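A quick word before the example. In earlier lectures we treated sequence and structure as two separate objects. From today on, think of them as two lines of the same record. Here is Poly [ADP-ribose] polymerase written that way.
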Amino acid sequence: MGAKSLAFPILGAGTLKYPIENLPRTMYEAVKNYSDLNSSQIKVVNFVVYPQDTEIAKKFDEYLLSKQESEEFHSKDTASSNASLPGSQQEPSSMTPRTNETSKEYDGIEINLMIDSISNVSLDVIVNSTNKNLELNNGSISKFILLAAGPEIQNECNQRYPQGISTSKIAVTKGYNLNCKNVFHLVLPPWDENSPDSILANLTQIITTCLEKAEGLGAKSLAFPILGAGTLKYPIENLPRTMYEAVKNYSDLNSSQIKVVNFVVYPQDTEIAKLFTEYLNREKNEGFHSKDDEDEEIEDNVSAGQKDVGVTLKFFAEYQNLDNAIETVKKEYDSLLTTEKIPFDVDLTESRKPNLKSIGTDHEVQISIRDKIEIHGRHSHVKNAKLDVQSLLMEYKEADEEIIFKDIAQWSYFDENNPENIRMFSDKENAMLEKAYSLGKRFLNLKKIKYDIKKMCFQHEGRKFKMKRKQNLRYEPIPDTWSPMEDGELIKIVPVKNGPEYDDIQATFSRNLPSYRIIKIERIQNKTLYQGYQALKRKFEVENPNITNEVDGLWHGTAEGSIDGINKSGFNRSYCGKNATAFGNGVYFARRIRYSANDKYSVPDANKTKRIYKCSVLVGRMMQGHRRLKVLQDSYNSAVDDIQRPRIYVVFHDFQAYPNYLITFSV
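And the structure line, produced from the sequence above:
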């Protein structure tokens, strides 16, 4: 109808008797949700209260005031990201080489669309899409760069990267005869129709990595070709949004020293130039809209489809006594029912859910999965079902641990009188021994046998046995940045008082949290946790060879009481859903330090001291998160708030994140 404004009365507050305390939030959120999810021409909505309805007016005033106060933390970002942006809106009349064809500025980063050869660009960094062997004479972009830079650039590639680089990695060389300081050479995976979201998310990630690396080198400007548009066959209609949003997302999350990013289109690629120009102009006119977190609570009912077991009751009575009779029976029946909630810290994959369903069927109870497993039914049935569910969860947890710990080390034993006859412990025993070893325990009691882990021996039926622990061949050396550790030292918390590590974190605080003061920075050196993380990383790289599996520099705010547990055991699933569930019931990490530094996540202690971890996280194949997500779909490794421009990452595996640094800070 073309309307631009509406007026609503306070719906339901009169003879319909809707509770007035519920109406402010319901009506406000309905309008806000519509605004967030639609590019609307409606500009004004008025809620109209009759003068005599003072109580209703008071409720609406209090609610709107509370919304303003609670959202103040986010309002600055919202305002800046939705601000009108300068730049030409005219479509080019021809495709002759020129710069600044059209531009847009995001919080200080000016984005230019250039119609030219990328070898003609004059900026700090030029990005080159090439092949794994870094043979620059292959591929149209590389050929132009090689021709303009000279043979020295190929020589540096050969010397510094003799084995080439893997997919989604970056090689850095000088610019030589190009008008730039450095060239970033990267390798992208080919387009995969079966995994379009993962491929585009990977493109976003590698653009982000380029921006981070450029900023680390002190660069203030970059030029990107249109990545994936050539022989890799990325659909060109997806590229404008993906590339622009990657830069915008980086700008939103960082107070960046980078001021200019150019996307460079070759003059003959008129269709690509048209798509990029149209997209940029459309965004100028419409602005960007963000989705609020869903606020719904939807259960995953694993008992769905099972036949209800019960009886039908028919009541015959005089009309005036019928309601009383039904109510009496209902109360009596309800007293026979109960609900038990069981926390879980294992991956309940789709293949595992049927076993829970079977327990529900066997015991005639209803089982559903929310943040906990809920069992509903008669008292005696629920009690028996609970035991079976707990036993099943323990089996799953042990199975998960067996896989991880076997990848770290293999334990064996032999009779000291017959050392040649070496036997391997079972996977279950191996996991329990390795877990005890990693926790620094002296003894492990298992099946009436006392294993001496320090002396590596045990006795059984009067015979003495020796034990051996063989480090898995895929053992990952500890990082060079770690301080020395003794052979038997598994965990070491090291103060970081100066150097590049300290300076990097301090710079992040200065840019993004200027009102906070760092009290101390500690490096977490946990050998067992690090090896588990590396083992899972290798697994991801085998399963997802063509995408970026790891994201560094994510943040996780926490409370003082959780520090020891995280330092020793990492982010196990006992932390799932503690502070957030909007994108799934896992452990949350954020690109934006200000998000994790919020008091809701980085909980102040009595002295108003706060704590936050800087982490490495294995994200692998990402899926769109949502509040009802309890377990990931098969073949996915993490959930995010937005596939195209993820800012929040949710993981569900014990070894999927490593806490590199713990920062203690205060106002």
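Notice the following. The chain has five domains: 5-69, 102-281, 322-404, 409-471, 491-666. We will return to this example when we discuss secondary structure assignment.
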